[in-house]
Amino acid sequence: MHKLTFNLKIWLGCAWFAAFFIVSCEGILNIKEKPQAIERNTRFQIFLEDRSGYMVQLKGTPGVADADVLLKSKTLGIEMNLISDSTGTIQLGNALSDDYFISAVREMKADEMQQIIGFPNSHIKLKNTTRGVITLRADVDSALVVPMFAVATGSELVISEIYACGPPEAGLYYHDKYLEVYNQSDSTIYLDSLLIVVGGRYIVRDPDFVYSKNIWIFPGSGTEYPLEPGQFAVCAEDAIDHRINAPFSVDLSAVRFEFYKPESPDIDNPAIPNMIRILQVSGNDWLIGGEKDALMIARIHPDSLAYRNEHLLVPTGCIIDGVEYLDDPTFLSDKKIHESIDAGATGGIEFYTGKSMERIVLLKDGKLILKDDDNSSLDFRVIDAPTPEYHHQQ
After folding, report:
1. Domain containing residue 55: CATH number
2. pLDDT value at position 40?
3. Exposed site from 156, 217, 261, 331, fewest CB < 10 Å?
4. Looking at residue 343, what is its pLDDT?
């Protein structure tokens, strides 16, 4: 009997210890799995300050009232659409501390511009062109100031898609790269003599000039290559059906243009007009980076470009549109082109995954209108496969 009682006591003691151990471990696990981050929630204030002088003339204060503001968290992906109040301030309650991509835009009405400059210019807006990322921190109470500047309304001709990484399951095949442009205006745009500037690996970050070793020009003397409203035009590295060599690639045999270097072992589709090389220091074909680079459209005569240390210098004011992409688009410290061209970056695509970067649809009412806030962090989206000369939402 005593032996039975002793064994029972031992069993009960072990059971109690096991239960205590399990409960204790669960408590530890719960603490690790559900961290309390209440201290990261706080109120923030953002002040939009007009640096053009327009708002002071219009309302007597530099605060930009009625601006459309988009905030996107870098790490959490949270998006907030906000409108500044009458003082030009955004009040955020219970927001999480993080780095945020920011786009702030305020369209200037024709009657407002009549009052400011004496004629009804309806093609001006105020934008944050120099600060594309802000940091909201719970331990900082002071208001953040975001400067805004007057710019002409969004480009009528935009870069709508960049496909650069190469197709999957085809070894190191990369010849199916392309750049696509889109006419979102209401009139015909002639592509003749516009420049395609590549520079992600070679550009010096300069607010006045883009430094590039890779510049090509559209053929034509003025009115030979029209792009009608709502039309796309692809410029392909090689205008062939790449599915012959890479089954999961794309057919580019009927696109608008191709890049061709006649002195190199390059492919030429005689049915497709060739882009004309102005400068490309190396490579047997048009070169853009698979994971990071920058592409721009510019309107300037090549003879007007200065040449320095194997680079042509393109004035920033001649850039119609520009897009930068990075292997990690949250690392904006790696950017090469100036924020006035592209305040952010798209990308985050690995080599040979077949993914592409496409501009987001803003409006679809008979004709696509694509998002163009000069901030690729907010304007572009990564899609699973390229869509040459169409949008995946059409």
Report:
1. 2.60.40.10
2. 54
3. 331
4. 85
Q: Based on the domain organization, do 259 and 372 belong to the same domain? A: yes
What's the CA dihedral at 267, 270, 276, 280 to 10 degrees? 0
Question: How is residue 221 annotated by DSSP?
Answer: S
Query: In this predicted model, what pLDDT tens digit does every residue of 205-238 receive, in sequence order?
Result: 677 899 999 999 999 999 999 999 999 999 999 9
Kind and range of the H or E run holding 357: strand 356-359
Quote the domain boundaries for residue 120. 38-152
> How many distinct structural domains can be found in the chain?
2
Query: Nearest 5°: phi and psi at 377?
Result: -65, -30
Residue after which a domain boundary falls, among 121, 152, 183 = 152
Cα-Cα end-to-end distance for the chain: 85
Residues 265 and 362 in one domain: yes
In terms of DSSP bridges, do strands 311-315 and 209-212 run parallel, antiparallel, or are they unpaired?
antiparallel
Cα dist. 204→195, 314, 374 in Å? 18, 11, 19
Query: Residue 172: its pLDDT value, please?
Result: 93
In the chain, the amino acid numbered 148 is M
Cα–Cα distance list, 143 to 98, 136, 197, 272, 343 (Å): 15, 10, 39, 55, 21
